[in-house]
């Protein structure tokens, strides 16, 4: 295994770190002050400072770094430390045009989009001029199993007609969100993995209705939001179908190519930041005549956090290295392993940091509750832990049975 950074990545790491210190971190308070929240999501606005930061990041060449096909052409091993750096700030991913679900949607269009689709949607997405949403999950079915999706995408003459209800459509409340990718059943008689299709839907198409925004840990996550969306006789030309009918499942699998572990990389950055805050507090705050670091089992808590982060980072890099060397298919077990480990380590470390801060850790004076919510959400939003464990066990049993020459 070789996790050494290329010269290009080494230079990008230094530039990204100084950009974060110089521009992103100091802008966080302005961003929060400019954010217009509230239950009426139609009033949400893009904080102007975000557009200023995006322009600066683009000019600095720190733009679309996630996309292997374009620009920096980074390997997964090289992208990992860059994504980790952005894990320190909730606003950083958008600044560098590297935030979900746009990253996955752009990858879909790069891989499966027609020329027309690329011109109309990929180009402005890559320029950061518009945002997008991904509508797969449905309230009525267990959506951790993508074959369960019930919403329909049926051919009628020279149109495809969409019906159904989706939820947890992240980013759909953003004022710049102009398009979504809808996954629907197009042929129930086909093979289980060829029944679904993916359709590009302009957000202002008649029949698309955002019913509400779902709160997560008591916040609406504005200006992005997570919408429940109904589709009623939504009619679109056949040119809206991505890659051809029946390829929805294949695209859903391919959608998260390299993007599969972006969140893991970022979760390590969130954990690292939480440990930094934890240590600062433990050194500076005194109780019962001693710094907190010297009280009770706090030294063990610090040591355990450091060990857990190192293990998680190494496994993230191993998964990235395997994706680079043997491809996503050969790295399936490692990808699932890190998807369980990274958010779990991050939640544990952030939780310990909140505890070390006492009441302050639960306030908005520190970013810990936001970091915690981000990491905790991943244990479901990036696929439930249990589903990943199921795959790891299945692959392990297969491998062991083959090695032992026994049937499984
Ligand atoms: C904040 C947030 C953002 C999201 N963003 C998006 C988005 O942009 N687009 C989108 O389409 N979806 C999005 N999702 C949805 C997310 O992908 C789903 O919630 C997830 O796939 C689980 O589906 P489900 O909620 O239907 O849970 P279910 O499938 O009902 O599963 C519920 C629970 O059952 C258990 N379980 C399920 N399968 C197994 C198994 N095989 N073995 C053991 N236990 C199991 C697990 O404990 C699991 O958590 C988001 C979710 C959240 C919370």
Keywords summarizing the entry:
binds flavin-adenine dinucleotide, single chain, flavin adenine dinucleotide binding, Butyryl-Coa Dehydrogenase, subunit A, domain 1, 3 domains, Butyryl-CoA Dehydrogenase, subunit A, domain 2, 13 helices
3D architecture notes:
- It comes from Undibacterium baiyunense.
- GO terms for molecular function: acyl-CoA dehydrogenase activity; flavin adenine dinucleotide binding.
- Belongs to the acyl-CoA dehydrogenase family.
- The chain has 408 residues and is α+β, with helices and mostly antiparallel strands.
- α8 runs parallel beside α11.
- The protein is built from 13 helices and 9 strands.
- A hairpin with a 2-residue loop joins β8 and β9.
- It has a 4-stranded antiparallel β-sheet, with no helix packed on it. A 3-stranded mixed β-sheet has the order 1-4-5. A two-stranded antiparallel sheet has the order 8-9.
- 44% of the residues are buried.
- The structure holds flavin-adenine dinucleotide (FAD).
- Flavin-adenine dinucleotide (FAD) binds next to β1, β3, α12 and α13.
- Flavin-adenine dinucleotide binds next to β1, β3, α12 and α13.
């Amino acid at each position: 295994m070789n996790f050494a950074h290329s010269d290009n990545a080494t230079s990008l790491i230094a530039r990204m770190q100084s950009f974060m210190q110089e521009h992103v971190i100091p802008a966080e308070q302005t961003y929060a002050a400019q954010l217009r929240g509230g239950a009426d999501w139609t009033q949400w606005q893009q904080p102007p400072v975000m557009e200023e930061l995006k322009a600066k990041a683009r000019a600095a060449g720190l733009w679309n770094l996630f996309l292997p096909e374009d620009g920096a052409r980074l390997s997964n091993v090289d992208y990992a430390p860059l994504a980790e750096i952005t894990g320190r700030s909730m606003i950083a991913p958008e600044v560098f045009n590297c935030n979900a679900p746009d990253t996955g949607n752009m990858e879909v269009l790069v891989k499966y989009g027609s020329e027309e689709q690329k011109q109309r949607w990929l180009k402005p997405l890559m320029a950061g001029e518009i945002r997008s949403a991904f509508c797969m999950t449905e309230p009525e079915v267990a959506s951790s199993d993508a074959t369960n999706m019930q919403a329909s995408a049926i051919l009628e003459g020279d149109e495809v007609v969409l019906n159904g209800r989706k939820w947890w459509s992240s980013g759909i409340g953003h004022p710049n969100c102009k398009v979504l990718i809808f996954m629907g059943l197009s042929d129930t008689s086909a093979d289980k993995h060829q029944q679904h299709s993916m359709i590009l839907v302009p957000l202002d198409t008649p029949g698309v209705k955002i019913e509400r925004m779902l709160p997560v840990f008591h916040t609406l996550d504005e200006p992005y939001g997570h919408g429940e969306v109904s589709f009623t006789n939504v009619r679109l030309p056949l040119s809206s179908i991505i890659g051809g009918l029946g390829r929805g499942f294949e695209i859903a699998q391919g959608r998260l190519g390299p993007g599969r572990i972006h969140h893991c990389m970022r979760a390590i950055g969130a954990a690292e930041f939480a440990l930094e805050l934890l240590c600062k507090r433990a050194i500076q705050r005194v109780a019962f005549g001693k710094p907190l670091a010297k009280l009770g089992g706090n030294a063990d808590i610090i040591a355990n956090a450091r060990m857990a982060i190192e293990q998680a980072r190494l496994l993230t890099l191993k998964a990235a290295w395997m994706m680079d060397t043997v491809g996503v298919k050969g790295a399936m077990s490692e990808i699932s392993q890190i998807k369980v480990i990274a958010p779990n380590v991050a939640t544990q470390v952030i939780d310990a940091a909140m505890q070390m801060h006492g009441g302050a850790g639960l306030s908005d004076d520190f970013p810990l509750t936001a970091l915690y919510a981000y990491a905790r959400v991943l244990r479901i939003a990036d696929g439930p832990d249990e589903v990943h464990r199921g795959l790891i066990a299945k692959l392990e049993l297969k491998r062991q049975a083959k090695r032992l020459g026994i049937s499984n």
